[in-house]
Amino acid sequence: AKNAGKGCYRFWNDDFLKESTPDRMMIESLLREGIRQNQLVLHYQPIVEASTGKIRSLEALVRWNHPVKGMIPPDDFIPIAEETSLILQLDEWVIHEVVRQQSEWKRQGINLCPVSINISASHISLPSLLHTFETLVKGKPYLANFLQVEVTETAMMMDPDNATLILNQLFNIGVSSSIDDFGSGYTSLGYLKKLNADVLKIDRSFIDGITTDSFDHDVAKAIIALAVSMSMKVVAEGVENKEQWKMLKEFGCDYLQGYYFHRPMSSDKVYELLERHESV
Ligand code: C2E
Ligand code: MG
Ligand code: MG
Ligand code: MG
Hints:
- The protein has 280 residues and is an alpha/beta fold.
- 46% of the residues lie in helices and 19% in strands.
- The chain is built from 13 helices and nine strands.
- An eight-stranded mixed barrel has the order 1-2-4-5-6-7-8-9, surrounded by five helices.
- Helix 12 links the parallel strand 8 and strand 9.
- The longest helix is centred in the middle third of the chain and has 23 residues, at 86-108.
- It starts with 13 loop residues before the first helix and ends with a helix.
């Protein structure tokens, strides 16, 4: 259970996920039912400013709270949802839940933080995604600036022209975007330039070795320099210790996300944290 978060355990093993077995179909129908019965929950992980450690935004991360199996991490069911149209439903649920949560936090009187939402590969080039956001922000002009999307580099490059179009249209209605897991796939730098994405998120695999592996060290440094030259902001994912923080600050990285600062947490915990944070 290497990637399982705190309080999560593996529902099925990895071989299971790779094969197209009847069990896979069973999981899919369980998930379909789970979405309908509101078994999905969002946890939120703060993203902090590198210079001060202060919270600047949150990333919404979905979990499946199965009545018998308990909390199931996304890596155990997102890949299955991605093979079917279920992923569109799942993403839609996440977007609506984030909006609902933001309205609740607003009502509770805490200072809102932008929340970024992971959008899957098959969804990012669909006009329906734009439509969903347009409809949601229509009566709530304040909202758009508190919603962001994250698309992995690999997802972007599957249909780069359409994905670029949708991201640019989202940008026009105030919803900004990040390129997730950057460095783990292949991006044409030409697209990066055409894209109105504000943020690059450096893949965790480079941060892991940033203080111990000269390749990771050099790649992370180069990605940060690239982002700066394109006037993009950079987030480093998976920061787990002070040494990594120090080095990333030296390289000019803007924002950091990782267990060293905060783990993903329930919306109640976020509320407590943001309430306390305000008075700092
Ligand atoms: P991601 O978008 O790259 O999210 C970051 C992942 O890294 C999260 O795992 C987070 O808990 C983990 N992480 C953060 N800091 C650290 C750290 O310091 N050390 C380590 N070892 N891990 C850290 P999580 O929540 O298990 O999510 C895994 C992936 O599942 C996400 O990767 C994303 O691709 C996908 N995912 C999560 N939520 C959603 C969602 O709502 N919709 C879609 N379509 N995909 C989602
Ligand atoms: Mg992400
Ligand atoms: Mg990532
Ligand atoms: Mg990832």
